[in-house]
Write a structure and sequence with these properties.
The protein is built from twelve helices and ten strands. By secondary structure, the protein is α+β, with helices and mostly antiparallel strands. It has two domains: about 170 residues, no CATH class; about 160 residues, no CATH class. It has a six-stranded mixed barrel. It starts with a helix and ends with a helix.
């Protein structure tokens, strides 16, 4: 058997044109699949950036809310009721809103503003520069230093700006775990200042953040909040809800799925047709081996070896090319959203194995039907 596999390997790489065509087809298909799925994973991860950055264990919201940016303001009674539930260590309000700021140069820039509870500053980011207590100073804001930081003209501590006809002042530069999806800079301030500076409806609480006494109390807290007509989700549940929204209620998920299917079909058609042509051109050699005593199972093993070797090599090249492309894009575009996950790699590998199985099937049938007599007679 090792000798036959060595022959199979030499037959495979002997025709460099066909071998290169097989590799290109599979590599291109894997490249497209990994790129599309990685971009989708990156977008989903960034869509939950605010949830990850704030880090609250339980989020109370209106049942109709499906992402952080479309929050429905809650009455103050919800906060009071949440604080009275057994098992709640403490509950605080948080504000999420958007505003337009006028920079020192006179230009305007849209920003996302997060208002933290004045008493606890629950959900505050880690600071790179400045002191967290300075956020209580007049007109004080923290700015997040991420990929969108330069859109605010790279502000420093002490820089001033105008937000809705109010004066704002940078008192700290912060860092967060994840960057947002919409390419908008983020400012942190106190809850009272946020609802004062930014026009809002009668109710101003975007979410109520709950810290339970222990993990066992969360189901009871969720049940009590549900009785009030609202929804209480853990951090992971809220992230999953946001992901489901972008997957199934926007065109994003459908478009990525279609592109992935098209990539799979391209790889399937190219590799299947090319490998079948390769087998036809080497049919005499397989017939000669069969005439010399090679069993049908051994010929099948040769074909499976050739297809598997080519598929795995194309898979590795495709993943490597996609990774290099994403690294280059992220280097040139800091806010580029893409991430390679084990799920993406496993899915792409599964698609490659299906391509390999299809290519093997159509080739194996042809080889098993060959008769040495027909080869020598020709």
């Amino acid at each position: 058997m090792p000798g036959l596999l060595k022959i199979a390997f030499k037959l495979l790489i002997n025709d460099k044109g066909k071998f290169a065509a097989l590799l290109v087809g599979i590599t291109f298909a894997v490249f497209l699949m990994v790129m599309m799925m990685s971009m989708f994973s990156g977008i989903l991860a960034r869509s939950s950036a605010a949830v990850l950055n704030v880090g609250a264990k339980v989020w109370v919201m209106d049942p109709a809310v499906n992402n952080v940016n479309s929050s429905i303001p809650l009455p103050d009674t919800v906060l009071d009721m949440a604080r009275s539930i057994n098992g709640v260590k403490y509950a605080v309000p948080v504000y999420f809103g958007g505003a337009l700021v006028k920079l020192r140069s006179g230009s305007y820039q849209a920003v996302s503003v997060i208002g933290l509870d004045d008493a606890t500053l629950y959900g505050r980011p880690a600071l790179i520069e400045g002191k967290i207590e300075d956020i209580f100073a007049e007109n004080a804001f923290l700015v997040v230093k991420d990929a969108e930081f330069k859109k605010l003209e790279n502000p420093k501590i002490g820089n001033e700006f105008e937000i809705n006809d109010h004066r704002g002042k940078i008192v700290g530069i912060a860092k967060v775990q994840a960057t947002g999806i919409f390419g908008v800079p983020t400012l942190y301030t106190t809850y009272s200042r946020a609802i004062t500076y930014i026009p809002s409806s009668r109710f101003t609480t975007s979410f109520v953040l709950i810290e339970p006494k222990n993990e066992m109390d969360i189901p009871y807290i969720q049940l009590q909040i549900h009785k009030l007509g609202y929804e209480a989700l853990t951090r992971d549940q809220f992230i999953n809800k946001i992901s489901d929204f972008y997957k199934y209620q926007t065109g994003l998920g459908i478009n990525v799925m279609l592109m992935t299917i098209i990539s799979f079909i391209v790889g399937l058609s190219i590799s299947g047709q090319t490998f079948y042509t390769f087998v036809l051109e080497n049919l005499e050699k397989f017939g000669a081996l069969k005439a010399m005593g090679a069993k049908g199972s051994e010929l099948v093993s040769m074909i499976l070896f050739q297809v598997t070797f080519t598929s795995l090599m194309g898979y590795g090249l495709g993943v490597g090319l996609a990774t290099m492309m994403m690294l280059f894009a992220r280097f040139r575009l800091p806010d580029y959203a893409a991430q390679v996950t084990y799920t993406n790699l496993a899915f792409a590998l599964g698609m490659v194995l299906i391509i390999a199985a299809f290519s093997s099937y159509i080739s194996v049938r042809k080889v098993l039907q060959i008769e040495p007599f027909d080869i020598f007679r020709g």
